């Protein structure tokens, strides 16, 4: 099978063309990637969509894990959409995507690098002077993207309180209980939303525009994502006909997990990103390069990697926010993609993980 990303990608300069579970992330554990595309994935290049297996993976809902679930499978072998339980059967129904938002933030940061306005080794302290304590060692953009920043946990964070991004960062920088960053050889890959709050602040500082403005002009409008947006602070509403009628989401998860979208939009965004439409080749390759510390399965650019039992390798992101647990994944060559959104009724992370993996196994 020819991997389309081994060739120079057609990067559309979209700005010109169109102008661990902390607060928002449900993380699939991962195995380290050894090569871009496994032999098993290549052998499955034309595997038909197994509609029966997918419907079975959704389950008979509600049960003890989900009250409702929706999945959309796309790619070269066709498309399938299914739903079960107390969620809308409308394929355009919206839901809160949680930490899938981080992929949008990653894309903007990499575009700014392509424009020469940022670099992977740019220290955050250089862009946002005074935001982090002066005695802390430099923390780079790459470390934020890949969750290897070593930042302490926001120990003074109050559940249910709405913070501005700068206020949220202070829950780790001005909280004695948070401690100091982990540095040097002790650094590991620790998934944390604060990394992406800082990235959102960097984007605003470098561009002189709000994160939402950059999101709209660089990604949402050029790709025609009609159901995708970032609610303003304090806006807890959902569009009419949302996937499920859930309580308002609070606090504001912003650049790390605050967006609303639907399955079709997420499929279009993810496949455009992996295809190379949003980034030039030198930035595109960072989506798939694993850092030295990859214990949680995130690439240098923060893309989540997982290898299924049959060897198929998938790339994307999970999210959990405002009552929804969701995911968007695809093979690197976009042969097959999966977007799902569920409404969990349990806090049993093992049970949730097993069901998500079962759905991915059926999809790919």
From TrEMBL:
Against InterPro entries, the record matches this protein to: AmpC-like, Beta-lactam-related, Beta-lactam/transpept-like
Q: Does the keyword Cell membrane apply?
A: no
Secretion signal, residue range per the UniProt entry: 1-32
The molecular function terms in GO held by this entry are: hydrolase activity
Query: What SUPFAM superfamilies has UniProt attached to this entry?
Result: beta-lactamase/transpeptidase-like
Cite the entry's keywords alphabetically: Hydrolase, Signal
Q: Which Pfam families match?
A: Beta-lactamase
The chain positions of domain Beta-lactamase-related read 71-342
PANTHER family recorded for this chain? Answer: D-ALANYL-D-ALANINE CARBOXYPEPTIDASE, D-ALANYL-D-ALANINE-CARBOXYPEPTIDASE/ENDOPEPTIDASE AMPH
What name goes with this protein? Serine hydrolase
């Amino acid at each position: 099978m020819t991997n389309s990303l081994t060739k120079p990608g057609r990067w559309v300069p979209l700005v010109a063309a169109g102008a661990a579970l902390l607060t928002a992330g449900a993380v699939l554990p991962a195995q380290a990637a050894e090569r871009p595309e496994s032999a098993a994935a290549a052998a499955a290049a034309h595997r038909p969509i197994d509609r029966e297996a997918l419907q079975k993976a959704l389950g008979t809902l509600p049960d003890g894990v989900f009250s409702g679930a929706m999945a959309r499978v796309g790619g070269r072998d066709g498309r399938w959409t299914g739903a079960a339980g107390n969620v809308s059967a409308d394929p355009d129904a919206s839901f809160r995507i949680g930490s899938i938002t981080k992929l949008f933030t990653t894309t903007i940061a990499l575009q700014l690098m392509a424009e020469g306005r940022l670099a992977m080794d740019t220290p955050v302290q250089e862009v946002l002077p005074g935001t982090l304590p002066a005695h802390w060692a430099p923390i780079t953009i790459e470390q934020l993207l890949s969750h290897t920043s070593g930042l302490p946990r926001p120990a003074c964070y109050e559940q249910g309180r709405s913070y501005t991004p700068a206020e949220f960062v202070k829950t780790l920088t001005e909280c004695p209980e948070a401690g100091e960053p982990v540095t040097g050889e002790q650094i590991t890959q620790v998934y944390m939303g604060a990394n992406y709050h800082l990235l959102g602040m960097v984007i605003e500082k470098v561009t002189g525009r709000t994160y939402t403005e950059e999101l709209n002009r660089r990604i949402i409008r050029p790709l025609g994502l009609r159901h995708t947006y970032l609610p303003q602070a304090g806006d807890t509403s959902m569009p009419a006909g949302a996937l499920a009628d859930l309580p308002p989401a609070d606090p504001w998860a912003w650049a790390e997990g605050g967006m609303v979208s639907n399955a079709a939009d997420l499929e279009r965004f993810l496949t455009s990103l992996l295809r190379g439409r949003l980034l030039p080749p030198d930035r595109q390759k960072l989506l798939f390069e694993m850092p030295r510390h990859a214990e949680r399965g995130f690439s240098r650019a923060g893309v989540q990697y997982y290898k299924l039992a049959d060897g198929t390798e998938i790339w994307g992101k999970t999210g959990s926010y405002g009552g929804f647990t969701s995911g968007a994944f695809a093979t690197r060559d976009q042969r097959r993609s999966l977007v799902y959104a569920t409404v969990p009724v349990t806090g049993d992370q093992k049970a949730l993980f097993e069901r998500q993996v079962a759905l991915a196994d059926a999809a790919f």
